[in-house]
Amino acid sequence: MKTHRIPGFDLARAYAIFGMFVVNFNTVFGSVTSTEGWFGVLNLFNGNSSSLFVILAGMGVSLMSRSASQNPLQQKQLKATVLKRSWFLFIFGLLFFLWWPADILHFYGGYMHIAAFLLFVPRALLLLSAIIAVIVFHILLIMIPYQNGWDFQSMLYTDFWTIQGFLRNTIYNGWNPIFPWIAFFFLGMYLGRINWQSPKTSRLVLAIGSSVYVLNLLAQTIVKEYTNDADLIFYFSADYLPPFLPFMLGAASFAMILIGICVIIGEKMQSKSWLQILTNTGQLTLTHYVSHLTIGLLILSWIIGKTLSLDLIHQAPSNPLLILGFSAFFFLITCFFSYWWKRKFKQGPIEQCMRWFSK
Length: 359
What we know:
The protein is mainly alpha-helical. The chain has one domain (7-357). It contains 15 helices and 2 strands. It has helices at residues 7-29, 37-42, 48-65, 72-97, 105-115, 123-143, 163-173, 178-193, 199-226, 230-237, 245-268, 273-282, 285-304, 320-344, 349-357; strands at residues 150-151, 156-157. Strands 1-2 form a two-stranded antiparallel sheet. It is globular and about 55 Å long. 41% of the residues are buried.
């Protein structure tokens, strides 16, 4: 099932890859709590890269489904393919969790498994599903204390490998739980259904994303400046954990801004070699996710001279400029690898494994 590939989507993935490097290298060797100086700059990437990845994944699933929209047999085959990919990501992610306790892949598996049953529903139902996912999360907040299972000193989930802890983490209060994070996936599926061949689409998405982002930021500023209610201030300023509605709106609108800008750049710069290198990089997202959390972290730990530990917060933070510089360096190496690899192979090594698994 072939689709016309839009360079802007892969360019947005490349941006998210760089942001992912910054966030995760900073999580292990920097400070994810400081808002001062360069640490504040690094922490601007928190949440935005992950949500952008999830939205783009949802778009990818929708784009795959276009050619099967009127053919029942192709619909059945596509649903089976998406289900198999969800199982691959879920199993691979759980194995990878043994190394990286903030893994997102097994959550991706959950998003995709549910999405497989909504591939061909009316487009408006996808937006409704996104809204419902956010509402369900807020209902769960009332029923279950959010801190259950967490050791916020080490940022580790203490009972992940129990049935109750695993379900709680996966559905409600893990790093990227199904509720509310599947809302990003549904939003991506909705965006994947619209006509991106029209130049007006990217500009409309950019305008809507910018408007929501500014209004959300304005609401956060007003609450911080004009109220003394600590709970309300926390609700509007919480970043990633917990993913309250203001965070979801901010991350979703930022992703729409990035996607709109990247599609416009892709339209105007299609012949540029640097764009091809970046789009190649964006097409190997899964491979780069694994490589930076293994090779990248090991190299950075050697450079810094600190022992790599599964505790995500366990040591004095390193110089943020060193982390930012290494992130840029590792991204550059990643781009060269992607360019070389794509000249020889169509898919990245882990992407190809997933395709073999889902045949």
